[in-house]
Every structure is written in C-alpha cells, then in structure tokens.
Amino acid sequence: MSDMSLNSRPASGLLGSALRSPSFMIGFLLTLLFVLAAVISFFWVPYDVTVLNIPNKLKAPSLEHWFGTDIFGRDIFSMIMVGARVSIAVALVAVGIGIVAGVPLGLLAAARHGSLLDEVIMRGNDLVFAFPALLIAIMITAVFGPGAINAIIAIGIFNIPVFARLARGAALSLWTRDYVLAARVAGKGQARISAEHILPNILNLLIVQGTIQFSLGILAEAGLAFVGLGTQPPLPSWGRMLAEHQTLYALAPQTVIFPGLAIVLTVLGLNLMGDGLRDIFDPRLRRAR
Amino acid sequence: MQSHIRTFAIAGVLAVSTALTPAAFAADTEVTLGAQLEPPNLDPTGGAAAAIDEVTYSNVFEGLTRFTSDGSVVPGLAESWEISDDGKVYTFKLREGVKFHDGSDFTAEDVKFSLDRINAEESTNAQKALYADIESVEVVDPSTVKVTLSKPNGSILFNLAWGDAVIVAPETAATNATNPVGTGAFKFDDWVEGDHIDLVKNPDYWGEPAKLEKVTFKFISDPNAAFAAVMAGDVDSFMPFPAPENLAQFEADPRFNVVVGSTEGETILSTNNKQPPFDNPKVREALAHAIDRSAIIDGAMFGYGTPIGTHFAPHNPAYVDLTSQSDYDPEMAKKLLAEAGFADGFTTTLKLPPPSYARRGGEIIAAQLRDVGIETEISNLEWAQWLEQVFKGKDYGLTIVSHTEPMDIGIYARPDYYFQYDSPEFQKIMEDLNNTTDPAKRTELLQAAQKKIADDYVNGYLFQLANTGVVNAKLKGIWPNRPTQANDMTSVYWED
Amino acid sequence: MLPFLARRIGSLALSLIAASIVIFLVIEVVPGDPASFMLGLNAAPDTVAALRDSLGLDAPAFVRYWEWITGMFRGEFGTSYTYKVPVGNLIADRVWVSLPLTIYALTLSTLIAFPVGVLAAARRNSPTDVSIMGVTQLGIAVPNFWFAMLLQLVFAGILRWFSAGGFPGWDAGFWAGMKAMTLPAVALALPQASILARVMRSSLLDTLGEDFIRTARAKGLSRRQALWRHAIRNALIPVLTIIGLQFSFLLAGAIIIERIFYFPGMGSLIFQAITQRDLIVVKSAVMLLVFAVILVTFLVDVTYAIADPRLRRARS
Predict the structure, then answer these.
(1) What pTM was estimated for this model as a whole?
(2) Which parts of the sequence belong to the ABC transmembrane type-1 domain (chain C) (predicted)?
C-alpha cells in the first residue's frame, strides 16, 4: 500500500508537524481545557449546581464565585463545567450518528457507482439537505418532546449526508487506483475492498470533517437549547444559560458573557484543531494555503 | 402600584430624551403598545386566546355589560336591566343610537343573534359553559331584550361582561376573525401579520369618544427584545412586561413609569389528584408545606406577586387569607410524607408551560421538593404540548400555571377538569352559589368554597400574578389592573 | 445532454414527491390538536368536536394528502386554522420580507468577504493574513444569536440608532424597510462572511497554484496582475457554490435571529404555526422551502453540467 496519496506522511512525522502547527496546538489546548472541565465535573465542582441559593443571586465575579452567580444564585463557573458535559456529549454522539450511518452509505454508493442504489442514496442526501435543519429539530421535539436525546437525533440526522457525501467522493477516486484494481482482480468483494482498502485511506478526511462537525454540533446544540429544545433543567446547558439570562445583559453581564465565551472558545478550539489536522495530514494543502 | 409620577422635576431632561425616540415623532394622539402574544385572529367569540381580547375588548367590541379597571361590572351596550323575582328573567334596556363600524344600527336583533350563536350546536365559543343557563333570548322591541334562564344564575351579568359574549352583527359575524366589526370606540384598521395591528378612532362612537386617533399593538414575544424595544422607544407601553427583572432598570429611567397592579391570575402548582401518590391528601398536604412561596416570588418574579393560600384573588372583597394553613415547613412535610408511607420520598413529573413564572418557578419548586425527598423530572413544554399532555391527557404529576380567568373557582366543581378534584361537598357549594343572588349569602358561600379547597390541599397555591409593566411617563389612563384580559384604550391620552 | 436532463428532471420530481410525503407524515404524527389549542382551558369537548369538523380535520389521511397536493398545483393552499386567511397570502407576505432580508445579508457578507479574502490571499502568511484568518475563525465560532442580542442591546437599547426589531412593512417606504432589516442582516451576515472569506482565500490560493497562472506569470505578468486578471475569475466557482448554499440556508435558517428581532419572516411564521398547531400553514411553508432548495440544487447541477461535460458523466 504505497499509493496513499491522502496520507503521504509516515506516522512518526505527524507528531512533529503537530507540535509545529500553531493552529493545531492552540485548538488542541482549548479543546483539552473543555474536555477536562467536563471530565472533572463528574468528580468535583466548586458548588453543587442543583442547589439554589436565591438570596445570593446575580452576584458579580468574586473570589468565592469566579464567574459570579446566576438568577437562582448558582455558581456560574460550576454550571459551565457541568454544561461542557452536555455540549460535548450531544455533539459527540451526533457526529457518531453521522459517521456510523453516513460513511457506510457513502462507501456503498461509491462501490455501486452509477447504479440506481447510488442515485437513490445521493438523492436521499440531497433531500435531507433540502430540509431546513432547525425547523426539523423543532418538529422532532414537537413529536417526541424536548430533551437531550431529541437534540442529538435532530443534529445527528443532518450529519449523515455530510459524511455520506464525503465518503463517496473520496472513495470514488480511490476505486480507480491500481491497488484497488489489483484487489478486485484477486477476487475480493466490494464490501471487503471498501473495508480493507478504501476506509483506511479516507480516515484522515473523516477525522478532519468529524472535528468540524463536532464544532458545528456544539453551536447547533446551543441554538436548540436557546429556543428551549435541548436538555431540560436542572442539568445546565450553555445555550439554556444564555436563554434564561437574556434579559440580564445589562444588569448582570456575567450571566451571559461566560456561557457565551465557553461556546465561542470551544468552537474556536475545535475549528483550529480541524484546520491544523488538515494541514498536518496533507502537507500539499499547506503549501497551497 | 409602586411607582408614581416623579417626572415633573426633570421634565427638561425628559423632553430631550424623548425627542430622540421614534415614537415621539408620531403625533401625540397615537400610541404603540407592546404585547407578547399576537392574536391568532380577532374574533373573541371563536377562540380562547387571551391575545384576542387584549386587542379587541372594549376597544372594538362591546357586550351588554363590561368590566371596569377595578373588576366591577357596569352597563355596556345595555343601559339598564331588571331582574325578575325568581331570578330567571333578565330584561335589558339597550342603548339607542349605537352603530356598528360598518354603519348599520345596533338593535335587539343583534343581541338575540349573538347570544343564540353562543349556545348553538355548532358553536365554537370557548366559554360556552358560562352561558349554558340561557334558555331563550326574546326581542321585545328594537331596544329591549328579554333573556330567560333555565335556573337562577347569580353570575350571569358577570359572565356577560366577558369578551366571549360581545355583541356582533349577523352580517359580519363570519368575517370578524380577519375584519372585526363592532360597536367600540376604535375601529380595526390594518394587520401586518407577525408584526402589528392598527386600530383607529371611531368618530361615530355612541359614548365618550376616544382621545387617541390611533392605537398600534406591536407583537414582541422575546423578553430581551421587549426590553430593547421599550428602551429604544419603539413602544410606549408594555403591559404586562414579560421580564420582572428589568423593571428596576425602567424605574431608574425618568422616561418611564413602572406600573404594578393586580390580575385575576392565581398561579398554582396544579396537582393531579387522581394520580398516585397525589390521590393521598397527606401527600398533597406535605407538598403544600414543602413549598416556600416567598422564595418563588423572589426568585421567579423578583418580588412581584402576592402569596395566596387558596384559589381566589386577594383583591376580591370575599377573599380569605389561608396562607398560614400551608406555611413553609420542610420538617412537617417530611413527617407527613413518612406518615403517608413515603419516608424515602418518590419521583414525579413536573411539566412546565412557556411563561417565565412557570419555567423559573418550576426550577425553584423542583429544588424545594428535592429537599424533602421528592424528585421531579422537569419537562419544558410549549402550550400545544401542555394542552395535549396535561390539560387533555391528564398525563402529569405536577404542573405550574396561572389561571387568569376572573372568578374561576368554579373549575373545582368539574371532576373531569385536569387536576381531577372530585368533591361532592364542593360541588354542592357551587350549586348553592349559582342559585343565590343575595350578595351577603354569596360571599359566605364563596368563602366556604375557598376554605374547602384549601383544607383538601387540592393544589399548591403559590401567588397571585401581579400586573407589572412599563408605561411612558407621559401616557395616562392605562389600566393598572387586569380584571380581564384587556387593554382598554378608550380613555388613554398623552399628557402635555 | 438530453438523457442527462431527463434523468435529472425525473429525480427532481421523485425528490419532491418523497419530500411531500415525508412532510405530510411528520405533520400527521405531530401530537396536539389545533382545535383544542384555539379553544383553550374552558372549552367543552363537543365544542372542540364542532370546530374540528368545521376545519375539516376528520377526513381520512389519504384524502387530505391528495387534496393538499392537488390544491398546491391549483395554487390553493387552504385557509390558516388560526389566522383564518388564505395560507398562500400568509406565505407570500413572509417571502416578501424573508427574501429581501436574505439578499441583504448575502450582499453584506459578500461585500465584506470578497475584499478580505482577496487581501488575505494576496498577502499570504503575512501578519495581515494571519490576523484576518484569526478574526474569521472567531466570526464562525460566535453563536449568531448571542451576537444578535448584543447588537440589539447596543444599537437599539443604548445608542437608539435603530428600532429593536420588527418590520414596519414595505408600505412604510423602502428605506424604512431597509433600516429595520439592518440589525438582523448584520447578525446573519457575520458568520456567513467569515466562512465566505475563508473560501475565497483558499480558492484563490488553489487557482494561483495552477498551471495557467504559472504560464501567465512566466509570460511576465506580476503576481498581482495574475491575481486580478485570471485567478479571481476562476476562483469564483466554489465561492458561488457556497453563496448558493448560504442562500437557501438563510432563507429558512433565520428562525432564531427572527425571534430575537421579532421579525415577521418565513422562519417565525413556521415556528409560530408549529406552536399553535396551525399545521396547514406548516406543511405548505416547509414544502415551499424544500422545493426552493431542491430547485436551486438542480439548477446548480445543470449549470455545471453545461459548463463542464465531464461532470455529466460523473454525476449521472
């Protein structure tokens, strides 16, 4: 397997170029920060986020409460830590749905290129894309009720065509490669070729796209939570924190600035990491850029 | 009514600051009101949406009787009436010289048409039950109508004051939804769906003409947008204002007056009386003691609201203060739960409709219930889901809702109502009330009813919703109270 | 070309039918009854039944589907349950507001993204490029509803330069309408401009690396001349594709922004109709949006195929 145009570097060089890529390093550190916050929140948070302390509401940031307190007197710093859990979990599972359902569809379409099946899969993709995503999410919650699971489903559905298209496009170019032709001549079936020869070679692309979809998922979850369709209280969520304190922009800015920053920094981190990864995996692109 | 006029001293500053706002460019005979909900249509006789009455009540449509700002019932299109000794026949003398907005005359025929229409089989009137006792409506002469009841009903004059019983003309009844034609001091002018509705002065009004030439209702559902719209001067008044936390900022601004009045909204923690464990009165009693009303009023409403101990408006003369019967006492609540066999608590559902009193109040109540061992699963529903699951399906343990209909304690006499309280004793009190016209006797019965539901701990009684809002300091005549869902603009004017 | 077109039109028709069935089925299973929503807390069951009957809600599903589809072909969308006006008029009013808003936002984003993208490409790897790329990353990462509320607070609440939201209607005059659209358009344009600037830059750099540019450089054109004369024109194709995608996204995807600015567009019409269970509005409005997107995709495909015969084979 020498002909790996999509992965033209030996693995040992990857780490080196990762360390030299500032956008990857910044992105990676930002992402790590929020993943750590989420993980730590399972064991320890400064204050219990389910306990209300109304006399202590809307306090400005201080030594006791680094990010101040919210409308019910809860510690905003603790809420952001626990909220990271929700954001990351929702976006991660949604990306997972996209990959698990989308990639096989894309590989199948590529393997049967030009067939009716290919056409049906691709038109199905177009169809999903044609539906306004947020409206579908709203309809899903109208049918099944609001909650994290339904937010995941709504975001996940729209990830499927993204990965299906990507996998099909990348796989198509690989099907004409010599080593694939050789495998065909050797009598390997389409499914086996897809799994053994195609999939490993599009993995890099999938990782890069996965990072980007992850960041989009976090934004989407925040948007859904903002209109009240995400996780339900008492579990905090960044988007719902913004929604619940939207009237307090002027009165208690800490209640909207910190959750907003959490979203911005996480999305920024993931995007930078995705960009960095793309450069690392494909140095030709870096030259072009 | 916390805030008063305090703007005279700083009138100079005021003149400068309002000159910059767009609303100030309009002549001083126009007013823009902010409202959270857009009415689905403008026919108050064909839907329950409060937003319909908020635009049309008393402005466009009038009934035989009407509410005033303090909630009393006064003559409307009926100038006067006589009640027969058996309390079953009401003879209404109608006002003369009244014209509909399309120029046609208002006569006894219109009254008969409107009332018959409510009770017709294919009627889609949302409050049909209020008028079920009307047996027949008879035209005596063009300005006299005789209404005969099947049995005495002491509330009928009150019920006729509701927006659902306004008088419409047969020719226009079918199109009132989009082009309302009434007898009021304002005429419908224009509706840009999703944005605003314009009413203009009716020059041929029978009574005292409106002081304003034009009233615009602007629909802003988002609380943050409502705040920005008031600050930007896009609207002259926003009653009720959706975010109590912003009122302090308005109060600090000399351009505005903050108005605090009363509403008919009893905000309650409705409890599914047929769903275990709430079928056990001990559990409901425990619930009542587990709730800290002052924390809810403070945390969810920023202090606006009056605690209640029963389903009755505190500003009503017949009100009995029963709050001490359900004082906040978590230890007592735990003890009662243990007696009921739930020493380890239990888990139930808490389904919350969209208003912020419910969403915020719900989070606070969930935390308070957790303290006595009751776990709640919160789900935030939109109204349609709430109606389907809670109101119709009765698939809930607890919910929070403000019952804004005036004098609605009678809902406790309906065993199929969503909280499923079935007490023959209470139903008897209500029946007696309907058969009584003597005011002193009625007060007595109403008080007995209040006590009965408090003793049975039917629901958790939280607070009476306050009518809080913000009004341009120069705008006078806005109703401080909300005896019904109305924005009566007939006597509103700009002060120079 | 003809067989390609025939196939493409065939699949377009099939897509539309599939979309209509999906929409219809989803509407069928949405719980909640428009009649009980309209009548509220005190309504008696027989009153609700009377209203259901008058709204025609009790016909069999197939009959209602057929009437819906044939009605749309005749241009009849039925009457809104709650507003009681023809659905077609409701939608037309909103399109008249949403479409200009979308165009406004796209124009803004293109006007910003173009020069910024070209600048970044021309000064590749310079501090200018690095900071532009950093700002665009930020532009993508900021949730637009958060940004929108900030705009509203600053420009309406504090500075009072603009109304906090709403739309006075085109009757109030062209400039009044444009003014009312400005804050929402800016909020919508920010992330789109960031994405577009990045695409513009990378697409330009790709073209700059291609042979014909090298040839042009070899013929003595300076880098800047090569950029202006050849690269920009060729880099436009991916940029236009993105603009096309953004167009359909903005047309339907502005719900949150519309809510914040209480702006009467398509998104808020559908959102409100869903909450009021005015399903007759929901299905036709969603169908229209889906139709618009499918049609745009179709036109883009056909245009590409005309421009590049190789794609005809690859895509068909």
Answers:
(1) 0.81
(2) 95-300
